[in-house]
Amino acid sequence: MNRQISFQLNSANESNIFISYLKNLNERRKKEVLYYRRLKELRKIMKTHALNTFFQPIVKLKSGETIGYEALNRPTDPHLFSDTEKFYEFVGQSNQVFLFECFCRNLSLNRFISRNKGCVHPSPPLLFINIHPFVLLDSKYQSGETLQLLSELGIEPEQVVFELTERTAVTDFSLFEKVLSNYRSQGFRIAIDDVGSGYNSLKTLIYLKPEFIKLDKSLIQNIDQNKEQQQLVQLLIDYANQAKTEVIAEGIERLEDLTFLREQGITYGQGYALGKPKEEIIQGNIPFLLKFTS
Questions:
Q1: pTM over 0.90, yes/no
Q2: CA dist 202 → 8, 99, 235, 265 (Å)
């Protein structure tokens, strides 16, 4: 009797293990199918230029002057991705990241120059282009190609700012520093995005010496109500002043946040309160209630 019970238990366990194996196999198969469907969709996006390009103004917080725009590329039909962040997460994990970055760079530059025709700015506006840090290290991504494209479009290298996300950790700082020096020698400038988001250390700022640091929106939103955010932002402002780096506050959506940031002496800002991303080139502005306050 005991042997029969033991046999039945062993059979049940083996059956459960086999079922679990089949489930895992099925899940893995589903993930693989989804990956290749997404990869096919990504290649199609590049082939058909199926990206919408938006330009969000970056504004001087004291005067309201627009000094530049960040180019934001979004898939026109992201049905295989839950949101834009998931789309770019997939790109970063795929073997298409280099091709996609080159595609986005060229698309952003071409659309910027075509849509900026007829727009009047006090000085030539900067264009902030998001780029994966590791792409700049790739020998195939040559600054000479970018310079040639800029020359054809009539854009000076000094107008272009490569915006590196802090979410991708840089490990070989000495190599990266040399690469950035090469780009800087040709006139390009560097911005570090998402500063304060917690993905990377202040070592990135110290070694890469960016011309701009963009404070993550998690530090900015409701800053007037949060002492910890205020203290951290003040530390970053103090560092930027010593390093002669310009600070751009991202994610400004409330008048209270904008007022506080102006009072703290932050030079530039970006966010819905100053100007939403638009397909057209539209200059940002300071909300009317703050225009005439010091």
A1: no
A2: 61, 30, 11, 21
